[in-house]
Please model this.
Amino acid sequence: MIWESWSQFWEMGGYGLYVWGSVGVTAACMAIEVWQARLAHQKLLTQLHVEHKVHL
Amino acid sequence: MNIFRANFWFHYAGPQAFYGLAGRLWPWFAVLSAVLGVWGLWLGFMVAPADAQQGEGYRIIFVHVPASWMSMVIYLAMAFWSVMGLTFNTRLSGMMTRALAPTGAMFAFLSLWTGALWGKPMWGAWWVWDARLTSELILFFLYLGYIALTSAIDDERRGDRAGAMIAIVGAINVPIIYFSVKWWNTLHQGASVSLTKSPSMAQVMLWGMLLMALCFWFYTIALVLYRVRTTILQRESHTAWVQAIAQGAA
Model:
Protein backbone atom coordinates (compact mmCIF):
# COMPACT_ATOMS: atom_id res chain seq x y z
CA MET A 1 0.00 0.00 0.00
CA ILE A 2 1.32 3.42 -0.99
CA TRP A 3 -0.76 5.47 1.51
CA GLU A 4 -0.02 5.81 5.19
CA SER A 5 -3.48 7.08 6.17
CA TRP A 6 -6.90 7.82 4.71
CA SER A 7 -6.40 11.56 5.09
CA GLN A 8 -3.26 11.28 2.99
CA PHE A 9 -5.29 9.38 0.41
CA TRP A 10 -8.00 12.06 0.20
CA GLU A 11 -5.42 14.85 0.11
CA MET A 12 -3.66 13.41 -2.96
CA GLY A 13 -0.50 15.36 -2.23
CA GLY A 14 -2.35 18.68 -2.47
CA TYR A 15 -4.13 17.75 -5.71
CA GLY A 16 -7.22 16.38 -3.94
CA LEU A 17 -9.66 18.89 -5.41
CA TYR A 18 -8.49 18.22 -8.97
CA VAL A 19 -8.18 14.44 -8.72
CA TRP A 20 -11.47 13.86 -6.85
CA GLY A 21 -13.21 16.52 -8.90
CA SER A 22 -12.34 14.45 -11.98
CA VAL A 23 -13.15 11.03 -10.57
CA GLY A 24 -16.30 12.23 -8.78
CA VAL A 25 -17.87 13.99 -11.76
CA THR A 26 -17.04 11.02 -14.02
CA ALA A 27 -18.67 8.57 -11.60
CA ALA A 28 -21.69 10.85 -11.14
CA CYS A 29 -22.21 11.27 -14.90
CA MET A 30 -22.08 7.51 -15.45
CA ALA A 31 -24.46 6.82 -12.56
CA ILE A 32 -26.96 9.42 -13.82
CA GLU A 33 -26.76 8.01 -17.34
CA VAL A 34 -27.49 4.47 -16.16
CA TRP A 35 -30.36 5.70 -13.99
CA GLN A 36 -31.85 7.69 -16.89
CA ALA A 37 -31.63 4.72 -19.26
CA ARG A 38 -33.42 2.47 -16.75
CA LEU A 39 -36.08 5.09 -16.11
CA ALA A 40 -36.74 5.59 -19.84
CA HIS A 41 -37.10 1.82 -20.36
CA GLN A 42 -39.46 1.35 -17.42
CA LYS A 43 -41.55 4.35 -18.45
CA LEU A 44 -41.93 3.05 -22.00
CA LEU A 45 -42.89 -0.45 -20.82
CA THR A 46 -45.55 1.00 -18.52
CA GLN A 47 -46.87 3.23 -21.30
CA LEU A 48 -47.01 0.33 -23.80
CA HIS A 49 -48.74 -1.82 -21.19
CA VAL A 50 -51.45 0.80 -20.64
CA GLU A 51 -51.91 1.35 -24.39
CA HIS A 52 -52.16 -2.38 -24.94
CA LYS A 53 -54.94 -2.68 -22.36
CA VAL A 54 -56.84 0.11 -24.11
CA HIS A 55 -56.62 -1.82 -27.39
CA LEU A 56 -58.11 -4.92 -25.77
CA MET B 1 -25.16 -19.96 -35.49
CA ASN B 2 -22.35 -19.26 -37.91
CA ILE B 3 -20.99 -15.75 -37.69
CA PHE B 4 -19.15 -16.16 -41.01
CA ARG B 5 -22.38 -16.33 -42.98
CA ALA B 6 -24.10 -13.19 -44.19
CA ASN B 7 -27.44 -14.64 -43.05
CA PHE B 8 -26.36 -14.42 -39.41
CA TRP B 9 -25.69 -10.69 -39.69
CA PHE B 10 -28.87 -9.92 -41.57
CA HIS B 11 -30.87 -11.95 -39.07
CA TYR B 12 -29.60 -9.84 -36.16
CA ALA B 13 -29.96 -6.63 -38.15
CA GLY B 14 -33.70 -7.17 -37.67
CA PRO B 15 -35.01 -5.21 -34.66
CA GLN B 16 -36.86 -8.14 -33.08
CA ALA B 17 -33.89 -10.52 -33.19
CA PHE B 18 -31.51 -7.80 -32.02
CA TYR B 19 -33.79 -6.88 -29.12
CA GLY B 20 -33.41 -10.41 -27.78
CA LEU B 21 -29.68 -10.60 -28.45
CA ALA B 22 -28.99 -7.22 -26.81
CA GLY B 23 -31.07 -8.25 -23.81
CA ARG B 24 -28.96 -11.37 -23.31
CA LEU B 25 -25.65 -9.55 -23.84
CA TRP B 26 -25.83 -6.30 -21.87
CA PRO B 27 -25.69 -7.81 -18.35
CA TRP B 28 -22.42 -9.58 -19.20
CA PHE B 29 -20.82 -6.37 -20.41
CA ALA B 30 -22.07 -4.54 -17.32
CA VAL B 31 -20.51 -7.12 -14.99
CA LEU B 32 -17.22 -7.09 -16.95
CA SER B 33 -17.15 -3.31 -16.79
CA ALA B 34 -17.67 -3.28 -13.01
CA VAL B 35 -14.96 -5.87 -12.38
CA LEU B 36 -12.43 -4.10 -14.62
CA GLY B 37 -13.34 -0.74 -13.07
CA VAL B 38 -12.64 -1.96 -9.53
CA TRP B 39 -9.40 -3.58 -10.66
CA GLY B 40 -8.29 -0.50 -12.63
CA LEU B 41 -9.09 1.92 -9.77
CA TRP B 42 -7.25 -0.35 -7.35
CA LEU B 43 -4.10 -0.33 -9.51
CA GLY B 44 -4.41 3.38 -10.25
CA PHE B 45 -5.13 4.65 -6.74
CA MET B 46 -3.72 2.03 -4.39
CA VAL B 47 -0.76 0.43 -6.17
CA ALA B 48 0.71 2.90 -8.69
CA PRO B 49 3.34 5.20 -7.18
CA ALA B 50 3.34 9.00 -7.44
CA ASP B 51 4.72 10.52 -10.63
CA ALA B 52 8.23 11.99 -10.52
CA GLN B 53 7.11 15.32 -12.02
CA GLN B 54 3.41 15.65 -11.25
CA GLY B 55 3.22 13.97 -7.84
CA GLU B 56 -0.24 12.56 -7.10
CA GLY B 57 -1.88 14.97 -9.55
CA TYR B 58 -1.18 12.73 -12.52
CA ARG B 59 -3.82 10.24 -11.28
CA ILE B 60 -6.42 12.19 -13.26
CA ILE B 61 -5.01 10.20 -16.19
CA PHE B 62 -6.99 7.14 -15.08
CA VAL B 63 -10.26 8.82 -16.03
CA HIS B 64 -9.07 11.47 -18.50
CA VAL B 65 -7.41 9.24 -21.09
CA PRO B 66 -10.12 6.51 -21.13
CA ALA B 67 -12.89 9.15 -21.39
CA SER B 68 -11.07 10.91 -24.25
CA TRP B 69 -10.50 7.65 -26.11
CA MET B 70 -14.15 6.69 -25.77
CA SER B 71 -15.32 10.09 -27.01
CA MET B 72 -13.39 9.42 -30.24
CA VAL B 73 -14.20 5.70 -30.57
CA ILE B 74 -17.94 6.30 -30.08
CA TYR B 75 -17.97 8.93 -32.81
CA LEU B 76 -16.27 6.51 -35.20
CA ALA B 77 -18.82 3.84 -34.23
CA MET B 78 -21.61 6.31 -35.05
CA ALA B 79 -20.00 6.99 -38.44
CA PHE B 80 -19.74 3.23 -39.03
CA TRP B 81 -23.44 2.63 -38.28
CA SER B 82 -24.35 5.63 -40.43
CA VAL B 83 -22.47 4.20 -43.42
CA MET B 84 -24.21 0.85 -42.83
CA GLY B 85 -27.56 2.60 -42.59
CA LEU B 86 -27.14 4.59 -45.78
CA THR B 87 -25.74 1.57 -47.65
CA PHE B 88 -28.07 -1.24 -46.58
CA ASN B 89 -31.00 0.89 -45.42
CA THR B 90 -31.27 -1.22 -42.25
CA ARG B 91 -33.54 0.21 -39.57
CA LEU B 92 -31.28 -0.87 -36.72
CA SER B 93 -28.36 1.32 -37.93
CA GLY B 94 -30.09 4.60 -37.16
CA MET B 95 -31.20 3.30 -33.77
CA MET B 96 -27.63 2.26 -32.89
CA THR B 97 -26.27 5.66 -33.94
CA ARG B 98 -28.84 7.41 -31.77
CA ALA B 99 -28.16 5.12 -28.82
CA LEU B 100 -24.42 5.90 -29.01
CA ALA B 101 -24.70 9.70 -29.20
CA PRO B 102 -25.58 10.61 -25.56
CA THR B 103 -22.78 8.43 -24.16
CA GLY B 104 -20.32 9.90 -26.67
CA ALA B 105 -21.37 13.43 -25.69
CA MET B 106 -20.93 12.53 -22.03
CA PHE B 107 -17.40 11.22 -22.57
CA ALA B 108 -16.46 14.27 -24.67
CA PHE B 109 -17.70 16.48 -21.83
CA LEU B 110 -15.77 14.40 -19.27
CA SER B 111 -12.64 14.62 -21.40
CA LEU B 112 -12.88 18.43 -21.34
CA TRP B 113 -13.86 18.56 -17.66
CA THR B 114 -11.07 16.29 -16.39
CA GLY B 115 -8.67 18.00 -18.80
CA ALA B 116 -9.52 21.40 -17.27
CA LEU B 117 -8.98 20.01 -13.76
CA TRP B 118 -5.64 18.62 -14.88
CA GLY B 119 -4.60 21.72 -16.82
CA LYS B 120 -5.16 24.14 -13.92
CA PRO B 121 -2.54 22.72 -11.51
CA MET B 122 -0.04 21.65 -14.21
CA TRP B 123 -0.24 24.44 -16.83
CA GLY B 124 -1.81 27.14 -14.67
CA ALA B 125 -4.89 27.40 -16.92
CA TRP B 126 -8.27 25.65 -17.05
CA TRP B 127 -8.41 26.13 -20.78
CA VAL B 128 -6.14 27.15 -23.65
CA TRP B 129 -7.03 27.41 -27.36
CA ASP B 130 -4.65 24.62 -28.21
CA ALA B 131 -5.20 22.30 -31.21
CA ARG B 132 -5.94 19.23 -29.07
CA LEU B 133 -8.38 20.99 -26.75
CA THR B 134 -10.11 22.93 -29.51
CA SER B 135 -10.65 19.87 -31.72
CA GLU B 136 -12.07 17.94 -28.72
CA LEU B 137 -14.44 20.85 -28.04
CA ILE B 138 -15.56 20.65 -31.68
CA LEU B 139 -16.21 16.93 -31.16
CA PHE B 140 -18.43 17.76 -28.19
CA PHE B 141 -20.39 20.25 -30.33
CA LEU B 142 -20.71 17.64 -33.11
CA TYR B 143 -22.39 15.29 -30.62
CA LEU B 144 -24.73 18.04 -29.46
CA GLY B 145 -25.47 18.94 -33.09
CA TYR B 146 -26.27 15.33 -33.92
CA ILE B 147 -28.61 15.00 -30.93
CA ALA B 148 -30.34 18.33 -31.65
CA LEU B 149 -30.82 17.59 -35.35
CA THR B 150 -32.12 14.03 -34.97
CA SER B 151 -34.53 14.98 -32.20
CA ALA B 152 -35.84 17.97 -34.19
CA ILE B 153 -37.00 15.82 -37.13
CA ASP B 154 -40.34 14.13 -36.52
CA ASP B 155 -39.98 11.47 -39.21
CA GLU B 156 -37.61 9.03 -37.52
CA ARG B 157 -36.15 7.54 -40.68
CA ARG B 158 -35.52 10.98 -42.17
CA GLY B 159 -33.92 12.01 -38.89
CA ASP B 160 -31.69 8.94 -39.06
CA ARG B 161 -30.50 9.87 -42.53
CA ALA B 162 -29.88 13.53 -41.67
CA GLY B 163 -27.99 12.48 -38.54
CA ALA B 164 -25.95 9.99 -40.56
CA MET B 165 -24.61 12.89 -42.64
CA ILE B 166 -23.34 14.73 -39.53
CA ALA B 167 -21.86 11.51 -38.17
CA ILE B 168 -20.00 10.71 -41.39
CA VAL B 169 -18.80 14.23 -42.24
CA GLY B 170 -17.87 14.98 -38.62
CA ALA B 171 -15.78 11.81 -38.39
CA ILE B 172 -12.97 13.67 -40.14
CA ASN B 173 -12.47 15.54 -36.86
CA VAL B 174 -11.46 12.34 -35.03
CA PRO B 175 -8.07 11.83 -36.75
CA ILE B 176 -7.52 15.58 -36.40
CA ILE B 177 -7.91 15.24 -32.60
CA TYR B 178 -5.71 12.17 -32.53
CA PHE B 179 -2.83 13.61 -34.56
CA SER B 180 -3.20 17.22 -33.34
CA VAL B 181 -0.35 16.80 -30.87
CA LYS B 182 1.93 15.75 -33.74
CA TRP B 183 0.77 18.17 -36.44
CA TRP B 184 0.77 21.29 -34.33
CA ASN B 185 2.91 22.63 -31.55
CA THR B 186 0.57 22.08 -28.64
CA LEU B 187 0.65 22.58 -24.90
CA HIS B 188 -1.04 19.21 -24.57
CA GLN B 189 1.47 16.41 -24.16
CA GLY B 190 1.99 13.75 -26.84
CA ALA B 191 0.33 10.34 -26.90
CA SER B 192 0.76 8.32 -23.69
CA VAL B 193 0.45 5.08 -25.60
CA SER B 194 1.14 4.54 -29.29
CA LEU B 195 1.32 1.54 -31.57
CA THR B 196 4.71 2.45 -32.97
CA LYS B 197 6.80 2.99 -29.86
CA SER B 198 6.91 1.57 -26.36
CA PRO B 199 4.77 3.50 -23.86
CA SER B 200 6.34 6.37 -21.96
CA MET B 201 4.77 5.26 -18.66
CA ALA B 202 5.63 2.91 -15.83
CA GLN B 203 4.10 -0.57 -16.22
CA VAL B 204 1.65 -0.37 -13.33
CA MET B 205 0.38 3.08 -14.36
CA LEU B 206 -0.09 1.81 -17.90
CA TRP B 207 -2.02 -1.24 -16.71
CA GLY B 208 -4.25 0.85 -14.49
CA MET B 209 -5.06 3.12 -17.43
CA LEU B 210 -5.69 0.26 -19.86
CA LEU B 211 -8.01 -1.49 -17.39
CA MET B 212 -9.96 1.74 -16.93
CA ALA B 213 -10.16 2.11 -20.71
CA LEU B 214 -11.57 -1.43 -21.01
CA CYS B 215 -13.99 -0.65 -18.16
CA PHE B 216 -15.30 2.38 -20.11
CA TRP B 217 -15.51 0.29 -23.32
CA PHE B 218 -17.68 -2.35 -21.69
CA TYR B 219 -19.72 0.28 -19.86
CA THR B 220 -20.48 1.88 -23.23
CA ILE B 221 -21.37 -1.43 -24.89
CA ALA B 222 -23.67 -2.44 -22.01
CA LEU B 223 -25.41 0.93 -21.88
CA VAL B 224 -25.83 1.27 -25.65
CA LEU B 225 -27.27 -2.26 -25.93
CA TYR B 226 -29.66 -1.39 -23.10
CA ARG B 227 -30.65 1.96 -24.60
CA VAL B 228 -31.16 0.61 -28.12
CA ARG B 229 -33.71 -1.85 -26.72
CA THR B 230 -35.82 1.06 -25.49
CA THR B 231 -35.66 2.64 -28.94
CA ILE B 232 -36.55 -0.65 -30.65
CA LEU B 233 -39.65 -1.09 -28.46
CA GLN B 234 -40.70 2.48 -29.14
CA ARG B 235 -40.34 2.28 -32.91
CA GLU B 236 -41.79 -1.20 -33.25
CA SER B 237 -44.66 -0.60 -30.83
CA HIS B 238 -47.21 -1.33 -33.59
CA THR B 239 -45.93 -4.89 -34.06
CA ALA B 240 -47.39 -8.02 -32.50
CA TRP B 241 -44.16 -9.04 -30.76
CA VAL B 242 -43.83 -5.71 -28.91
CA GLN B 243 -47.48 -5.85 -27.92
CA ALA B 244 -46.89 -9.31 -26.52
CA ILE B 245 -44.02 -7.90 -24.41
CA ALA B 246 -46.18 -4.96 -23.33
CA GLN B 247 -48.90 -7.37 -22.24
CA GLY B 248 -46.47 -9.07 -19.86
CA ALA B 249 -44.89 -5.86 -18.53
CA ALA B 250 -46.12 -4.39 -15.26
